[in-house]
């Protein structure tokens, strides 16, 4: 990856950092069930903090973003998401970073949303078709072909996607406004739920034949990571 591309990626991260607060004001998990037994409880909104006297530069750095991800999967794409789990210094900073690799001719980061963050994505290499869909009742599609040097913003909580429509591999860097933005891939959540959703629900909701729904529920739904 060229030095210029890395500099642009860091500028993108700085942009994302400028419109977040110094901490996540909303929950960093899907739910938090109240409990009276402290011994069975977990810490909410972040991790326990290391004594500042013991912090090192390694807590605030990560190496390996120049390495292409393994795209040998059904979606032909790979997402390397760096959160506070991999880079402890991100804890309480309200930001995370991802590298997405796409194989040529259709590598796909499928429709998904982040329940705890918005996103800006910069194309470093290749050509991507990227967009998002607004919420009820309009469901407006905002989409565009992006080339190297272009970037797009995905608003908080909206379904969005990227697909490589070029003949060469593509690489993008994304910055998200949470140290743990979460990812919910639409198809996986609907057809790969554990336990399976009653087929009658999906048959009615998606106007699909029941046999097709049941077939979809037996398939292996993968994430691009």
From TrEMBL:
Cited InterPro entries: Cupin_1 (IPR006045), Germin (IPR001929), Germin_Mn-BS (IPR019780), RmlC-like_jellyroll (IPR014710), RmlC_Cupin_sf (IPR011051)
Function (record text): May play a role in plant defense. Probably has no oxalate oxidase activity even if the active site is conserved.
SS bond partners: 32-49
GO cellular component, one term: apoplast
Residues annotated to bind Mn(2+): 112, 114, 119, 160
GO terms assigned for molecular function: manganese ion binding
Keyword hit for S-adenosyl-L-methionine: no
Record-linked SMART domains: Cupin_1
Keywords annotated in UniProt: Apoplast, Disulfide bond, Glycoprotein, Manganese, Metal-binding, Secreted, Signal
UniProt entry tagged with the keyword RNA-binding: no
SUPFAM superfamilies with a match to the protein in the record: RmlC-like cupins
TM ranges: none
Domain of life: Eukaryota
Compartments in which it is found: Secreted, Extracellular space, Apoplast
Entry similarity comment: Belongs to the germin family.
Domain Cupin type-1: 63-214
Location, primary (coarse class): secreted
Secretion signal span: 1-22
Gene3D superfamilies found in the cross-reference section: Jelly Rolls
Protein name from the UniProt record: Germin-like protein
Residues given in the record as oxalate binding sites: 109, 114, 119
């Amino acid at each position: 990856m060229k030095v210029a591309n890395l500099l642009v990626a860091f500028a993108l991260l700085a942009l994302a950092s400028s419109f977040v607060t110094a901490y996540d004001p909303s929950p960093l998990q899907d739910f938090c069930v109240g409990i009276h037994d402290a011994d069975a409880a977990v810490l909410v909104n972040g991790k326990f903090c290391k004594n500042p006297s013991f912090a090192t530069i390694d807590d605030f750095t990560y190496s390996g973003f120049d390495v292409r991800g393994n795209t040998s999967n059904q979606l032909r794409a790979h997402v390397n998401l760096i959160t506070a789990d991999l880079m402890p210094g991100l804890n309480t900073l309200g930001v995370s970073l991802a590298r997405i690799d796409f194989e040529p001719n259709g590598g796909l980061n499928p429709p998904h949303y982040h329940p705890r963050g918005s996103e800006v994505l910069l194309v470093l290499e290749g050509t991507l078709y990227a967009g998002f869909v607004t919420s009820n009742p309009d469901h407006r599609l905002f989409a565009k072909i992006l080339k190297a040097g272009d970037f797009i913003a995905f608003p908080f909580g909206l379904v969005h996607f990227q697909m490589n429509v070029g003949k060469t591999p593509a690489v993008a860097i994304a910055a998200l406004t949470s140290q743990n933005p979460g990812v919910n891939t639409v198809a996986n959540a609907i057809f790969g739920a554990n336990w399976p959703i009653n087929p009658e629900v999906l048959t009615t909701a998606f106007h699909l034949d029941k046999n097709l729904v049941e077939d979809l529920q037996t398939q292996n739904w993968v994430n691009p990571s």
